[in-house]
Amino acid sequence: MSSHDRRRFLTVLGTGIGAGVLGTGTIAAADSEGRTDRFLIDLSYVSRSDVPADVEIVHDISEVGLLAARGDPDSVPGAASTIPDVAVYQDEVADLAMEAPGPHAASHNHDGPATITELQWDKRVQDVADLTDKPGEGRTVHETTRGKGSRIAVVDSGVYDGHPDLQGVVNADLSANFTTDQYDWRPNGAGDHGTHVAGTIAATNANDGPNGGALGTAPDSEIVALRVFSGVEGVTGDVLAALVDAANKGCDAANISLGYPPLPETTPGVPALKAAYEAVAEYARSEGMVIVNSAGNDGQDMDEEGIISLPTEVEGIFGVSATGPIGFGWGHKHADNEEKWLSGNRLQEPTTTPAFYTNYGSAVDVSAGGGNADTDGPETYYRDLVLSTISIQGEDGSLVPGYGWKAGTSMAAPQVAGAVALVRSLRPDASAAEVEELIQETAAMPADGETYHGAGHLDLRELVKRAR
């Protein structure tokens, strides 16, 4: 096998990981128009009035003493006043797409195709709701709260609000495009990564098709879509500006399923980049917002000396590692009884197993379901990935709703962002620190220990029980 054969997995499924490590030179990135003259201005070193008029201010982030700019950085006074604006990447390992009405199971309690929610192992194992045709006993999370009154920012590639499970979920007035392209906050060629993330948080299962729809952790929460990816790569300044904007708009959490390759700490520009995220994290917490970040997909020990994984290792950012099962609904033992697909005598590896790709170490606050895979298994191995809402581009260029499996710490982070929504719906006055502490205190510790799980694995039932 191999569930840990990363090279084979990426070859089979494709990858969303950004290629290239920054190395020993300075770091820079192209913006959405392909230009490479983006940089950040640190207002602690230079007055805004001293910034030349021919330098374009792309984003005013003066709440944290920064400006995102475009032009000639050498024209700005002060050697330490500018740093390059660095490329960011989505923390997605693999994806498989399927148009609505969605996936089918070869055998399923002898009652026909599985519904989409019955294939959402991440929601079922957390007892989010009764998601099988033979519901078990015990109180579900949604009997306590569905996240009403909470607001979550998805800082990503945009959200396709035409999906039946996301209609009425996205606040169009507060959503915004932070790239320099001419489009709005919807995907617009940027891919369906953000739509998948949004569905994990807040999909409503409103699709009335024969296979139903997908269900999110907090379907009564509100999504604010802040797009930072376009047809090209994302840029740090856009992300920082979006996070500050999310805090200013009263978001309870901002989900950033993005990051950078592991970097030598001595790489020019890295200390300043870390400081920029620290300032944004401090500002967000002062406004009551939790920043939830995917830990990264490099299989990296983030405690390795001399290497830093950003922004996960930034103080004040809540880092989430990924776990996933091996064997969910594969079609062997108990293939005719989907109730048993998640039972211990069915799975080769439980849903709390650290995913083969996940970063780990002391920067992890908790773990959550992000998907796993054994590509040497049967053709249904992809069911161990996370199933959620996506958009598919039709032949005429228009988007149509669909459902797809993705894996990555990108898929784990929104599980926790949805958990923040649940807590804030019950405790609207809780501080960001109090919300984070409650998530950590109620997490359950798997046998792998804190190296992979931080304070433990997300436990929604215990969380809402304690938050009531």
From TrEMBL:
Q: Name one GO molecular function term.
A: serine-type endopeptidase activity
Tell me the domain of life.
Answer: Archaea
Keyword list (alphabetical) reads: Hydrolase, Protease, Serine protease
Q: What residues sit in the active site?
A: D156, H193, S410
The Peptidase S8/S53 domain covers: 147-444
Give the GO biological process terms. proteolysis
Q: Which Pfam families match?
A: Peptidase_S8
Gene3D superfamilies registered for this protein in UniProt: Peptidase S8/S53 domain
Spell out the family assignment given in the record's similarity comment: Belongs to the peptidase S8 family.
Please report the name of this protein according to its UniProt entry: Subtilisin-like serine protease
**Species assigned in the record:** Halovivax ruber (strain DSM 18193 / JCM 13892 / XH-70)
